[in-house]
Every structure is written in C-alpha cells, then in structure tokens.
Give the backbone structure.
Amino acid sequence: MSSLSIIKSSIGKKLLMALSGLFLVIFLTQHFLINITSVISADIFNALSHFMGTNPIVQFILQPILIFGVIFHFLMGFYLEIINYKSRNNRYSSYSGNQNASWISRNMIYSGGVVLLFLVLHFIDFWIPEINYKYVEALPDDPNRYHEELVHKFVNPIRVGLYTISFIFLSLHLLHGFSSSFKTIGVDSKYYNPIQKFTFIFSTLIPAGFIFIAIFHYLTG
Amino acid sequence: MKLFLKIWRQNNNKSKGKIVKYQINDISPDMSFLEMLDVLNEKLIYEGNDPVSFDHDCREGICGSCSLFINGRPHGPERGITTCQLHMRKFKDGDTITIEPFRANSFPIIKDLVVDRSAFDRIQQSGGYISINTSGNTQDANTIPIKKEDADSAFDAATCIGCGACVATCKNASAMLFVSAKVSQFSNLPQGQVEANQRVLNMVNKMDEEGFGNCTNTGACEVECPKGISIKNIAKMNREFLKAKL
C-alpha cells in the first residue's frame, strides 16, 4: 500500500491534519517557554532569541518546516471544511447542534480562522521586521535587541487587546483539537481521560501564559 | 393534545421540497411518534390528500428502519431510542414539531421523509462479514476462548442497527461511527481478525466513494446513536486502517 493512497483516504487526511496540529503544539510550547523568560530576565530572553534567530539549523531547516506546517494545517483545514460542508447540500431548517456537541468542536474553522488572522498580524509585527533587519537592510548583529523590541510592541493597548482575543480563540481551538488529534491517530480509549485532562490544562495555561506576557510588558514597559 | 407540525414534503429526489404546516388534534400522549404520523396520514387520506411518506418496520427499536429528524435532532429529543420508541408524552400540548428527513448527499431523498440509505448496505457488502463456509463441519464459535472485555466490546459494536442517525446529526454527514462499529464488531474477535486488514481498507474505501464527510470528533453521533455506539470505535478503526496501510 502506498503512502499516497493513505493521503487520498478520508482517514489519511484526518491523520495529516492531526499530525500537523500536534507539530504546531510542540512549536507553541517551545515558543511559550522562550517568551516566558522575557518576564523573568531580559538577558536570558535575549540569549535564547539570539540563538533562535542566528542558528542556521533553526533558521534554514526548522523555520521552513514550521512555515510549511502552519500553511499545510490551515490549507488542509479549509479544504476539509469545504468537503465536509459539501457532503450535505440540503441543510436542515431546524438543527440543534448545541444539544449533542460543544460549540468549540463544531466551529474549529472559526477559531482557526481567528488564529490565522492573528498569525498575519504576528508576522507583520515580528517576522517581517526580523527578516528585514537581517537580510534586507543587513544591519549588524545585536544580541541585546530582542527584549527591547518585544517590550516596544506591547506598548500599544490595541495590540495587547488583539493578542488577548487571539489567544482566547487559540485556547478554544486547542481545547478540541489537541485531544481530537490523539483520537484521530488511533490512541487507545484507555488513555482518553488523562489526554482530556492534559488537553484542558495545556489549552488554558499556555494561551493564558501568552496573554500574561503581553499584559505584563504593557504594564511594565 | 393539539400539535402544530411542520413536515418536509418532497415528491422525489428531482423535485424541490418544502416545509408544509399541519395542525393535528386529539393526539393521545401515549401514542408513539409514528402512530401520531399514522393519525395524520389517515386524516390526509380522508381529506383526499397525499399522505406523508416515512420509513418504519418493526416499531420496536430493533430494525433501524425509522429515521426522522425531529426538532433538529435524529430520532427526536430523547437519548438512546429510535423514533418508533419516542412517545407523544415527551411533547407538550400546543407544541410545534419540525419533522425533516435525515439529510446527507449520500442519503438521497426518495419521497418526503424517506431517504435511500443503501449506501450503508454497500459499505457493509464491501467487507462487513466473515468469509466462512457455514455448511458442513464448521467449528463451533464457542470453542474459541475469548476475553470477556473483547466479547463485550464486539457485542456493543454489533448492536448498531444502521439507522443513519450518526450521519444525520454529524455536521459533516460523516458515516464513521457506523463504519467503525461494523469494523470493530469483527476485529475485536479472533474470527474477524483473519480478514481485518482487507475489511477495514475496503469499508473505508467504500465509505469515501459514497461521499460521506470526514469525522471531526465532535461526538454528536455518539450522543444521538439510539444504541449508544461509542466513538472509541472510530479511534479503533483509525488504528486498524493505519495498521492495514502500513
């Protein structure tokens, strides 16, 4: 059986969606662990950011994989949403979806869409200036600029508000998506309860932590 | 009881359907939902009108023939029952009840509330069986020792009556609960493991061919299933499918 035939199947597409989501969860975790150091020590944050921003493996191998993962997850998500929508051309005049499934699980496309809009903002805020600094203007390497740049971004209360809203939607997205991914990859049901508990803890703590970082720098910056 | 009914009427798969309103009086709270529709149909026939077509057979919750999407939910507001087991005492005098067919592209409407669920039959025919010649000297199934939990999980999966409520309620019109139940009922037992790989590949392939949507693990199917089939079967089917592919 070829791997191509797996991808063509409905379960294969679900599997790719789940694996790309879990990959992004790993990235989100490391991103949070680095960012949280910004409230503890500017030096540690600068050192970690400088490493991430200059290490060739991170820059030229991991970063392209990450960008591919993000784009793939969103494109596959929209593609599956369209296919699923088209599987029922005639809609119900009365449909009580809230009686048997959570709003979060039924509206992943909306929470994902907000996260996508946030990523556009985030790229404009951080990634594009970073690329401009390093490769367009080719400014001299400054290992101590990262913390100051971060704090500067969160001076604006509108940006802090947008980040807060976005992370609330990310939390909603993770609350269903994280545990759902494990079901998709076929994890045995005896592990569901611990996975569900971990999903709740992860999906609330990590986005809450990001919100805390944004508000912390707004208040202290 | 006096009831106001909003029922989907559609002559055939090609014609355009619409909701038609009816008022019905003197309904006993002890009637089943289908008996209430019988009363409506008698009234319609007496008045010279076309009766409402709906599926039914055993009227005991066993056969899986009855369907109906009642007030936004398959088999109505009660959990763990089919439409034929739903009684009018679950509604209040003066209620408005919306009745629609199970909707999915893979379940085309035949007439009014009757849909063609033969896609399920074709999925079943693609692998939902065990190839054993039962004539002659077939070994007695009871001679093979089976763990209690395996027997229980196989039996639980086998209680699926193939009514299609899972497809009807799923926002994606996915048939994965049905297919996974049919896969699990065999793969949980040693007799079914011989053909397990080919079975899951064939059944998932047929399910995709029939045009059902993808499962997004909302869990709605499990809630609405009249037999309480668990979505754990879907994870098991995913596991079986990947194992068979790889």
